[in-house]
TrEMBL record:
One of its GO terms (molecular function) is tRNA-guanosine(34) queuine transglycosylase activity. Residues 14-367 form the tRNA-guanine(15) transglycosylase-like domain. GO terms for cellular component: cytosol. Substrate binds at D92, S93, G94, G95, F96, D146, Q189, G216. Residues 247-253 are annotated as: RNA binding. Zn(2+) binds at C304, C306, C309, H335. This is Queuine tRNA-ribosyltransferase. Its EC number is 2.4.2.29. Belongs to the queuine tRNA-ribosyltransferase family. PANTHER family: QUEUINE TRNA-RIBOSYLTRANSFERASE (PTHR46499). It comes from Tropicibacter naphthalenivorans. GO terms for biological process: tRNA queuosine(34) biosynthetic process. The active site is at D92 (proton acceptor), D266 (nucleophile).
């Protein structure tokens, strides 16, 4: 019997719910993956992340290869042991962050050479090295190494880049080899162009992967353009494998993506915004920095069961944020991750019940109310 699998339980329109099974645990889909960039979800203990309902974390190959180094993590027992998270971990390939963070990049058919944004040291990342690093880390879901052009890009640039990524996808597949219990995902590219996305999907299907990501979106094209692409891109990928939309997003982006057939997503937004005094609730975004909260004894969200909402007032959250206290980021990150996981659970339940249309209408109507009236 295979050690990993993806089983669809229900469909509602194009939305799907199911379970990815790995030796380290099950991932309920649609799934939201909190981002643990440097082997930590900033401000959260792993058991707290789990308590919000997360089944899987995302780790960043680019950051971990530079500091503390993949070989060191391997010597210390692998990423799960190193960061004290024993459930599934997905690692990205490093390709996207090399392009967005590093300096003095040089891109060739072989791969990318670059200087570290940490200390200026010189590194090379190729499909083969990316597979090696992700193996050293012990990642459960490994991403193929790809190149992602910033949008807008002209058609020639998009085409050349996509075809290079498909050659790298084959090299990633070859280098990954046969690793029972671990999954390798290919990444579809092609910008917003339907025919390029179709060509990319065909190339990936011919190589054969355990799951398929949609890359190159959420890079500044806007929600309307992204949804336009998601109206066709998921349908170009195999029906019976997980589909992962990389780097998305805001709650409304997530609901729209699930509606269009996406099974997995990741984003730094809930944790990053928690550290900048921003909270997400069913009624939209709340800025705890705002002076209107200074005398407000009410919880951030009276229906939320997270520690920030059950034990503290808006006035307290406002105070600790304005005072630069660490607990501000900790509580707001916990709340935001809790809200995101509640949103995913709500969507999984609605898909199973066949009520996703009503769920989405309620989601939008509640957001339209805006935050509670000021006191
Ligand atoms: Zn809360």
């Amino acid at each position: 019997m295979a050690l990993t699998s993806f089983d669809l339980k229900a469909r509602d329109g194009r939305a799907r719910t199911g379970v990815i099974t790995t030796p380290r645990g099950e991932i309920r889909t649609p799934a939201f993956m909190p981002v643990g960039t440097a082997a930590t979800v900033k401000g959260m203990l792993p058991e707290s992340v789990r308590a919000t309902g997360a089944d899987i974390l995302l780790g960043n190959t680019y950051h971990l290869m530079l500091r503390p180094g993949a070989e060191r993590v391997a010597r210390l027992g692998g990423l799960h042991k190193f960061m004290n998270w024993d459930r599934p971990i997905l690692t990205d390939s490093g390709g996207f962050q090399v392009m967005s963070l590093s300096e003095l990049r040089k891109l060739t058919e072989k791969g990318v050479t670059f200087r570290s944004h940490v200390d200026g040291s010189k590194h090379e990342l190729t499909p083969e090295r990316s597979m090696e690093i992700q193996k050293l880390l012990g990642s459960d879901i490994v991403m193929a190494f790809d190149e992602c052009p910033a949008l807008p890009a002209d058609r020639k640039r998009l085409t050349d880049s996509m075809r290079l990524s498909m050659r790298w996808a084959q090299r990633s597949r070859d280098a990954f080899g046969d690793r029972p219990g671990h999954m390798l995902f290919g990444i579809q590219q092609g910008g917003l162009e339907e025919d390029l996305r179709a060509e990319s999907a065909e190339a990936l299907k011919n190589i054969g992967f355990d799951g398929y990501a949609i890359g190159g979106l959420a890079v500044g094209e806007g929600q309307e353009a992204m949804f336009g692409c998601l109206d066709f891109a998921p349908g170009q990928l195999p029906e019976d494998k997980p589909r992962y939309l990389m780097g998305v997003g805001k709650p409304e982006d997530i609901v729209g993506a699930v509606k269009r057939g996406i099974d997995m997503m990741d984003c730094v937004l809930p944790s990053r915004s928690g550290r900048t005094g921003q909270a997400w609730t069913p009624r939209g975004q709340v800025n705890l920095k705002n002076a209107r909260h200074a005398d407000d004894p009410r919880p951030l969200d009276e229906n939320c069961t997270c520690p920030a909402c059950t034990s503290y007032s808006r006035a307290y959250l406002h105070h600790v944020y304005r005072s630069g206290e660490m607990i501000a980021g900790m509580l707001l990150t916990w709340h935001n991750l809790h809200y995101y996981q509640q949103l995913m659970q709500g969507m999984r339940d609605a898909i199973e019940a066949g009520t996703f249309v009503a769920f989405e209408a309620d989601f939008q109507a509640t957001r339209a109310l805006g935050d509670i009236e000021r006191l």
